[in-house]
From TrEMBL:
It comes from Phytohabitans kaempferiae. Belongs to the Mg-chelatase subunits D/I family. ComM subfamily. Residues 210-393 form the AAA+ ATPase domain. InterPro entries: AAA+_ATPase, CHLI-like, Mg_chelat-rel, Mg_chelat-rel_C, Mg_chelatse_chII-like_cat_dom, P-loop_NTPase, Ribosomal_Su5_D2-typ_SF, Ribsml_uS5_D2-typ_fold_subgr. This is YifB family Mg chelatase-like AAA ATPase. The lineage of its organism: Bacteria, Bacillati, Actinomycetota, Actinomycetes, Micromonosporales.
Length: 506
C-alpha cells in the first residue's frame, strides 16, 4: 500500500476546519514534499516527523513521499498536523493499519523523541470536528481535559507516538482525559474593599447591569483601579455558549489556565499603557492571533493610565466597540475574532496628578487639555458612563470599619436587571441595554415622554451633546430603571443618566 489518509483539524482564527491528511509513497529518490498551502512551521514538520518516527522505533520509508492537506486552497498553519502526518506516513508505508482511525480526527505536535506535545486551539478544533460529524478524537495529553468539554465527542489522549502505534498494533489502551477537579475559578477582588466613592460604585453597578463602557477620571488614590478590577466580580457568569467561545479564544492564544480549565467568569484584561496596536487588537506573523480586545470578549478590557496610551492604539478600539468583532487582514489572509467587551478607561486629570486633586495642581489649563486630549473625542463619545472621582477624605478613610456592600449583593441586583432587559428585548435579539440601537429607543413603544427628554433635546440643539450621546443617555436611563425594578424610566432616571454621562445635571 502506498497511499493513506487520515483526518485532522486546522484553525483559521478561532474557527476550526476538518482537514484530510493524505500521503502517497512512490519509487524514486527519497524526499518529502508537503502541499496544501503549509506555513513555515508546517513545512518544518518533515524533519520533526522523521526524527519522531525513527526515535519511536519505527522504520522511515526510503521513498519519495508526497503529503497533501485538503482542502488545498485553505492556509494551514502551526504544528498540530505533526501527529496525523506521522500516522499517515506509517500507514502508507504498510507499517500501520489505519482501520482504527476511521471516523477519528487526530492532531498534536511531535517532539524529536516522539513525545506528543499540546497545541494551541484544541477546544475550537475539537468543536469543529464535532460539527463535522466526528465523534472521536485523539489529542495530546496536555490538551485532553480542554478537549473533553465539547459535548458528544469521545476524547482519547496520547503522550508519545509509540503509545499510539502500540494502540493500533497491539490494542494497548490510550489515555483518558485527566480529572482536573471542579472548574472553580479563584475568587477575585471584592467590591467591599472599596472605601467610600459612592459615585464610582454606582457607575460600576450601572455599567455592569447594562453592559455599558466606563471612563473614570480622578487623582491617584481615588479608587479608579480598584473599581475597575472589581467590575468582573459583579458581572453574571457566562452561559454555556459564551463560556465555550471565551475558552476557545484563550485556547487559540495559548492563554488558558493550567489544566485547560473551562472559563465561566467574564475575563479581565489590563494591558500596560506601552502596549502596541497589535497587542490590543491582535497581530503576529502569518494569520493574526487574538489581542487584548478579543481576550476580553464578554468581559472587561481595562486601560489604566489611558492618556498614556498611544493615540493610534486607542483609536483602534473604536470599530470593535461598535461592531463587537475585529477583522484583521494580513499577507496570509484575513482573520476575524469576536471582541464584544466592556471598556473601562482610567486616567488622571493632568500630568502632575497630585493625590489631593485640583487644589494643588501645578499644570496650566493648556497642559491639562492636551493631556486628556490624548483620548480622542470620537472614542470618548462611545463611552456611556463618564464620571470624575474626588480624592478620599480622612473621614472616609477612618470609616473603613463600616461595611460596604460586597460584590455578591451588587451582583444579585445586576443579575435581576440584566434579566429584565433580556426579557424586554428578547424579540429583537438584544441581551443588554447597551446593545439596543438608538432608533429603537426613539420610536414607539419605547420612546420616552417629551417632558422627560426635553433637557436632552435642548443640549443637542446647543451643541452640548451629540446624537450618539443622546442615545447612550437613554440606554443608561433604561438600565437605571431596571436596577430599581421599574418597567420604564422616568425623569429622575434620565437626570441620573445625564449626570453619569456628562457629570452635569441637565
Amino acid at each position: 500500500m502506498s497511499y493513506a489518509k487520515v483526518l485532522s483539524v486546522g484553525l483559521v482564527g478561532v474557527t476550526g476546519h476538518l482537514v484530510e491528511v493524505e500521503a502517497d509513497l512512490s519509487p524514486g529518490l527519497p524526499a518529502v514534499v508537503l502541499s496544501g498551502l503549509p506555513d513555515t512551521a508546517l513545512n518544518e514538520a518533515r524533519d520533526r516527523v522523521r526524527a519522531a518516527i525513527v526515535n519511536s522505533g519505527q522504520r522511515w520509508p526510503s521513498r519519495r513521499i508526497t503529503v497533501n492537506l485538503l482542502p488545498a486552497g485553505m492556509r494551514k498553519t502551526g504544528s498540530a498536523f505533526d501527529l496525523a502526518i506521522a500516522v499517515v506516513l506509517l500507514g502508507g508505508a504498510g507499517e500501520l493499519p489505519l482501520a482504527a482511525f476511521d471516523g477519528v480526527a487526530i492532531f498534536g505536535e511531535l517532539g524529536l523523541d516522539g513525545t506528543v506535545r499540546p497545541v494551541r486551539g484544541a477546544l475550537p478544533m475539537v468543536a469543529a470536528a464535532a460539527k463535522g460529524g466526528i465523534d472521536r478524537v485523539i489529542v495530546p495529553l496536555g490538551n485532553a481535559r480542554e478537549a473533553s468539554v465539547v459535548p458528544g465527542v469521545q476524547v482519547k489522549a496520547v503522550d508519545t507516538l509509540h503509545r499510539l502505534v502500540a494502540f493500533v498494533r497491539d490494542g494497548a489502551p490510550l489515555l483518558d482525559p485527566p480529572d482536573g477537579g471542579p472548574d472553580a475559578e479563584p475568587e477575585g477582588p471584592d467590591l467591599a474593599d472599596v472605601v467610600g466613592q459612592a459615585l464610582g460604585r454606582r457607575a460600576i453597578e450601572v455599567a455592569a447591569a447594562g453592559g455599558h463602557h466606563v471612563a473614570l477620571l480622578g487623582p491617584p488614590g481615588a479608587g479608579k483601579t480598584m473599581l475597575a478590577e472589581r467590575l468582573p466580580s459583579i458581572l453574571p457568569e457566562l452561559d454555556d455558549d459564551g463560556a465555550l467561545e471565551v475558552t476557545a479564544l484563550h485556547s487559540v492564544a495559548g492563554a488558558l489556565p493550567p489544566g485547560g480549565r473551562f472559563l465561566r467568569r467574564p475575563p479581565f484584561q489590563a494591558p500596560h499603557h506601552t502596549s502596541t496596536v497589535q497587542a490590543l487588537v491582535g497581530g503576529g506573523s502569518g494569520l493574526a492571533r487574538p489581542g487584548a480586545v478579543s481576550l476580553s470578549h464578554l468581559g472587561v478590557l481595562f486601560l489604566d493610565e489611558a492618556a498614556e496610551f498611544n493615540g493610534r492604539a486607542l483609536d483602534a478600539l473604536r470599530q470593535p466597540l461598535e461592531t463587537g468583532r475585529i477583522l484583521l487582514r494580513r499577507a496570509d489572509g484575513a482573520t476575524e475574532y469576536p471582541a464584544r467587551f466592556q471598556l473601562v478607561l482610567a486616567a488622571n486629570p493632568c500630568p502632575c496628578a497630585k493625590p489631593a486633586g485640583d487644589i494643588f495642581c501645578e499644570c496650566s489649563p493648556l497642559a491639562r487639555r492636551r493631556y486628556l486630549g490624548r483620548i480622542s473625542g470620537p472614542l470618548l463619545d462611545r463611552i456611556d458612563v463618564q464620571v470624575t472621582l474626588d480624592p478620599l477624605g480622612a473621614a472616609e478613610l477612618m470609616a473603613a470599619d463600616l461595611a460596604s456592600e460586597p460584590s455578591a449583593v451588587v451582583a444579585d441586583r445586576v443579575l435581576k436587571a440584566r434579566a429584565a432587559a433580556a426579557a424586554r428585548w428578547s424579540e429583537s435579539g438584544w441581551r443588554t441595554n447597551a446593545e439596543v440601537p438608538g432608533p429603537a429607543l426613539r420610536k414607539p413603544p419605547w420612546r420616552l415622554p417629551p417632558a422627560d427628554t426635553k433637557a436632552l433635546r435642548t443640549r443637542i440643539d446647543h451643541g452640548l451633546l451629540s446624537a450618539r450621546g443622546f442615545d447612550r443617555i437613554l440606554r443608561l436611563a433604561w438600565t437605571i430603571a431596571d436596577l430599581d425594578g421599574r418597567h420604564r424610566p422616568d425623569r429622575e432616571d434620565v437626570l441620573e443618566a445625564t449626570q453619569l454621562r456628562t457629570g452635569v445635571a441637565p
